[in-house]
């Protein structure tokens, strides 16, 4: 009986952990730098020679006070706002058309067929 209980607990724990892994969503990243500017909707951070502008929304959790000159670490995710595959599809079609073999507009079978030359036998 103890074996069935142990197996059930392991299966339940596995199920819960897998659910958490899939529910996590997009991968998170971090950037640490000095605050250059902050507004209610964005924060601008200097990291080395790079300037990072990151949007803030009402769900953004801020601990401490955001002020110019403060060193901050921002955790963020990347998500697509728009995907336009149309331009790539048109370019691919144009490239395929450019390398496509040239075909004749003559009806099939109406073209003269070339016969290999045969040398006469002595």
Characterize the main sheet: 4 strands, antiparallel
Distance between the termini: 98 Å
Structure class: alpha+beta
Report the helical percentage.
25-40%
- Spell out the helices and strands N to C: HEEEEH
Annotation keywords:
122 residues, OB fold (Dihydrolipoamide Acetyltransferase, E2P), single chain, 4-stranded antiparallel sheet, 25% strand, alpha+beta, rod-shaped
What's the quick description here?
With 122 residues, the protein is of the alpha+beta class. The protein has two helices and four strands, in the order H-E-E-E-E-H.
Describe the structure.
The protein has a domain of about 55 residues: OB fold (Dihydrolipoamide Acetyltransferase, E2P) (Beta Barrel). The model has no long low-confidence stretch (mean pLDDT about 75). The chain has a 4-stranded antiparallel sheet with strand order 3-2-1-4, with no helix packed on it. The longest helix is centred in the N-terminal third of the chain and has 22 residues. The protein has about 120 residues and is α+β, with helices and mostly antiparallel strands. About 30% of the residues lie in helices and about 25% in strands.
Map the helices and strands:
Elements: H1 2-23, E1 28-38, E2 42-47, E3 50-55, E4 71-77, H2 86-99
Antiparallel strand pairs: 1-2, 1-4, 2-3
């Amino acid at each position: 009986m103890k074996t069935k209980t142990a197996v059930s607990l392991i299966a339940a724990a596995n199920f819960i952990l897998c659910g958490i892994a899939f529910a996590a969503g997009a991968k998170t990243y971090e950037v640490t730098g000095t605050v250059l500017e902050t507004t209610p909707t964005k924060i601008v951070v200097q990291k080395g020679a790079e300037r990072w502008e990151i949007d803030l929304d009402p769900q953004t959790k801020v601990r401490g006070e955001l002020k110019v000159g403060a060193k901050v670490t921002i955790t963020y995710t990347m998500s697509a706002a728009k995907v336009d595959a149309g331009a790539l599809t048109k370019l691919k079609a144009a490239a395929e058309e450019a390398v496509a073999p040239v075909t004749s507009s003559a009806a099939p079978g109406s073209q003269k067929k070339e016969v290999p030359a045969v040398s006469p036998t002595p």
